[in-house]
Amino acid sequence: xxxxxxSALNIGLAxxxxxxxxxxxxxxxxxxxxxxxxxxxxxxxxARLEDDPDDAVGRQVAAANRDALDRLLGASPLLVDVRPAxxxxxxxxxxxxxxxxxxxxxxxxxxxxxxxxxxxxxFEGWAADAQAAEQLAERGExxxxxxxxxxxxxxxxxxxxxxxxxxxxxxxxxxxxxxATLNEGLGKVxxxxxxxxxxxxxxxxxxxxxxxxxxxxxEANGPVDLKSITAQALQMGDEGHNRNVAATSLLVRSLAPTxxxxxxxxxxxxxxxxxxxxxxxxxxxxxxxxxxxLDAAHGIPGSTVVTAMSRNGVEFGIRLSGTxxxxxxxxxxxxxxxxxxxxxxxxxxxxxGDSAITETCGIGGFAMAAAPAIVRFVxxxxxxxxxxxxxMYRITLERNPTxxxxxLGFAGTPTGIDARRVVESGVQPVINTGIAHKxxxxxxxxxxxxxxxxxxxxxxxxxxxARLDVAEAA
Length: 474
Prior knowledge:
The chain is an alpha+beta fold. It folds into 3 domains: 26 residues, no CATH class; 205 residues, CATH 3.90.1700.10; 213 residues, CATH 3.90.1710.10. 38% of the residues lie in helices and 20% in strands. It contains 16 helices and 17 strands. It has a 4-stranded antiparallel β-sheet with strand order 7-6-3-8. Strands 11-10-9-13 form a 4-stranded antiparallel β-sheet, with helices on both faces. A hairpin with a 7-residue loop joins β16 and β17. α8 crosses α9 and α9 packs antiparallel against α10. The mean pLDDT is 93.
């Protein structure tokens, strides 16, 4: 029976295979772990929420997820306008600022978010200097709310103030809108917590010049199909989060002729020079498009589809379609990445930003297979980029046929994160991200890869089960 030697499959601890290998046998180690982290109660709860045609809860969950996926895949996000935030975003009035991530108060905010708030207060003219801006926040004279609560998304600190111009993205399939500020570029920028004169000067130019230029251009040009641009960009080396070279180029190509016709020569030159020098300009439009798509799939009772993943520099939070606007949070860690010269992990703030809305929608880190060049920016290898996408298929319900990935035989991107699959497999959603310095006023110091904490998804399933009255049955 053993004439050809022993070939073994080891399921469990890798150490179990050591004596067999020492004896000269061949062993294949299977990377296996018990479902639901070996938590029997959670595992039973996850099983109770499975699609079961013979169970009322199972039928409801299956139907709800099908509805959520149809809305997400059928979304049609168009860039329709650029307006001051106070005109575009409902309820953004007075001394109110929106921020990224789950709700958080000033006393708990991280350094880069505080820095961005100081910069926004200076930009709005609410304070004469940084100290006065901090005192306004400390006295409670600035109101704060999460971007996600207002149909908006913001990268990194995510600060949106009333006078900032925002892109207006309409999902024509469902009629809902989403908003995001204009992208400032890389380095010393407000979203990373910087607020010196160069940052404020750029924000004023956005308000007084670039925003109105883009508004006039869109009025004359008509809406821009962001889903189509994203689909093309994925086949040109972008992934829709940290690499946006192709998408930005496609956007500028579609708008430039009308921009030139509707602007003075000086304004057109300044706008196009800025866009040419900012490969990340499309990021904020990508985020708003994903937000508009996912909001259409949000609020479906019984659905286990994740409709938001976000970080505020202190907590990581997710929302499920089936649990309305409830957040499920856990402490957030520092990304694993590459740092600018002179900086390292000890300087980094824990991860922050609403930009994980791209991964939630099936692009960004989920589409890294399309963008092997991204590893030069966030670390890893080209093989890692392919493997990240393959791994994300394990925790999603669909492949988006619109977003085809050439390196994977034009397979669609993994779309529709299922909290059940995350809990069952233990596979953490991967996120491409920038890295901010932990102190206010410094700015970006690198970029890398982050993983969503598993406990958020376990808590979300418990929350959904409570809504469906299956917690006790589990």
